Amino acid sequence: MVDAENKEQAHYREVEWLGKKFPKSDRAIKIRLLLQLNTLVCTSLGIFWTICYSFFSRIDLALIFVALFFVGVCSYFSAKKFSYQYLAGIAHALLLIVIAISLIDSPIEDVPRSAHVYFLPLAIGVVFVFNQKDRYMGIIFPRLCLILFAIFGVGLMDMDVSSISPPENIRWIGCISNYIFSTLVLACILKIYIANLNAKVDLAFNLAQAVSKNEIVVHYQIQVDKDGNPLGAEALVRWMHRERGLLSPDKFIPLAEESFVIRDIGLEVLRQSCHLLREWSEDPLLQNKYIAVNVSPVQLIDDDFVSDVIKVVQAAGVDPGLIELELTESALSMDAEKASLKIQQLRDFGIRWALDDFGSGFSSLAILKSLPVQKIKIDRQFIKDAKSSESSKNLLKKILEISELMGMEAIVEGVEDHSQHTMLVDLGYSQFQGYLFGRPNPASDLTDSIRSRRG
Fold it and tell me: CA 160: distance to chain centroid?
C-alpha cells in the first residue's frame, strides 16, 4: 500500500515538474486548452443562471452558480501556470457542483432530469489531464463520475425536492441548455484530445528512432565567474527532426519522459558531452572546464542508471570530475533514499552533482542537508522577483549564506542583463549562467567562445 502511494506521489511530482520545466510542451498546451474551455463554460453558465435565478428570487440556487462562476475564474488563472493541486481542486469543485444541481434537478412531468449529463465531460476531461499512473485522479475519480451519471440517470436518486427545485417555467430551458452545453463541451474535449493524440503518435514514432538515427543534437550554454571568465557549460538537448527542423526540449522531452525514451536520450547527451570533454583535454586552455548534464526523474529511478553513466564516462576516457550531473528537486520525491544512494555512488566515482531549479517548488533544508550534492542552481524566478522585491533580494542573500554553511557552491541561472549581474555580485554570488553571457550554441561555437574569454 505504501509503495503504491509512493509511486502515485512520484508520478504526481514528475508531471508537476514537466509542467513547470516545459510550459510549452504539447501536454501542457492540451491542459491549458481544457482549462480555457472550462473557464468559458463555467463563467458563461455561472453568469446566465445566477442572473436567471436572481430574477426569480431564488438566491439559494443562484449561489450554486456563483460558485460555478468562481470555479471558472480559478480555471482561468490555473491555465496561466497550472499546478496539479489546483487541477485536482477544480475537478472536485466541479464534481460537488454537478452533484448539487443534479439533486435539485428532479424530473417532473414532460421534463426529464438533465443536469447529470455534465458528469460525462467531467469524467473524460479528468482522464485526459490525469493519466492512469495517478491512481485516484486518473482512475477512481472518473469512474466515480460515471457511476454518479448512471445513478442519477436511472432515477436512483429521485426524491421530493420540490421546495428547492428550479421554477417549473424555466425547467425546459435548463434541460435544453444542459444537453447542448454538455454535448458541445464533449465535442471540444474530444477535438483537443484527438489533435493532441495525432501529433503525439507521430512524434513518438520518430522520437523512438532519434538516437539511432543520430538526430539528437546537444547545444551548450556557457557558465562564468563574476568577472566573466568561463567555468564550463550546461549541455542542452535539441532534436533535429527530419521534417520539423530543430526542436527545443519543450516539444519532445515531456513525451520522452512518458515513453521512457529519455533514458536513451539522456545517455546520448552525456556521451556527446564526454566526447567534447575529450577534445578539450588536449587544449591547456580548455582542459579544466566542466560540462553540466541534466538528469531526468525517469533516468534516476532506472536500476541501470549508475552503471550506464559509469560505462559512458569510462568509454570516453575523461575525468569524471569534469562532469556535473544536474537533477531537479522533483526527482527526489520519487524515492529520496534510493536517489541519494545513486547520487553518492556516482559521487564516489568522481562525478559532481548539482540541484537544479532550487526553490522552484519542492525544496526543504532537510532534503538539501540529506543530499550529497556539491552545488545548488538558483531558479531564474528568484532573479526576476529580486529586481522589484526587497524581500526576494534578501532571500537570495540567505540562500547563498545557507549554501556556504553547507559547503555547497551556488550558481544563478537566467541572468539576462547587467543590472541583474551587478545585483547578484553585490549579494556575493560568483557563478552565473544566462543570455547575458551567451545563448545555447553548438559545441564548436562554445569552444570558440571560451577561447575568446579569459580562462
Answer: 46
Tell me, letter by letter, the H, E, C secondary structure of the chain. Answer: CHHHHHHHHHHHHHHHHHHHHCCCCHHHHHHHHHHHHHHHHHHHHHHHHHHHHHHCCCHHHHHHHHHHHHHHHHHHHHHHCCCHHHHHHHHHHHHHHHHHHHHHCCCECCECCCHHHHHHHHHHHHHHHCCCCCHHHHHHHHHHHHHHHHHHHCCCCCCCCCCCCCCHHHHHHHHHHHHHHHHHHHHHHHHHHHHHHHHHHHHHHHHCCCCCCCCEEEEEEEEEECCCCEEEEEEEEEEEECCCEEECHHHCHHHHHHHCCHHHHHHHHHHHHHHHHHHHCCCCCCCCCEEEEEECHHHHCCCCHHHHHHHHHHHHCCCHHHEEEEEEHHHHHCCHHHHHHHHHHHHHHCCEEEEEEECCCCCCHHHHHHCCCCEEEECHHHHHHHCCCHHHHHHHHHHHHHHHHCCCEEEECCCCCHHHHHHHHHHCCCEEECCCCCCCECHHHHHHHHHHCCC
Residue 248 shares a structural domain with residue 361: yes
Instruction: Single out the residue in 167, 188, 203 at which a domain terminates.
Output: 203
pLDDT digits (tens, 9 = 90+) for 265-303: 999 999 999 999 999 999 999 999 999 999 988 888 888
- For residue 367, the enclosing domain spans 208-452
CA distance 119 to 125: 10
Rounded to the nearest 5°, which phi and psi values hold at 261? -70, -15
Q: How many residues does the chain have?
A: 455
**Do 339 and 313 belong to one domain?**
yes
CATH number of residue 380's parent domain: 3.20.20.450
**Whether residue 341 is found in the same domain as residue 414:** yes
| Count of other CB atoms within 10 angstroms of residue 283 | 12
Query: Based on the domain organization, do 63 and 178 belong to the same domain?
Result: yes
**Rg from Cα positions in the chain:** 27
pTM over 0.70: yes
Domain count, the chain: 2
The predicted-structure confidence for 426-448, as pLDDT tens digits, reads as follows: 999 999 999 999 999 999 999 99
Tell me: the pLDDT tens digits for 355-406?
887 766 555 566 677 778 899 998 888 888 887 788 888 888 988 998 898 8
Choose the final residue of a domain: 146, 168, 203. 203
Looking at the structure, tell me whether residues 171 and 237 fall in a common domain. Answer: no
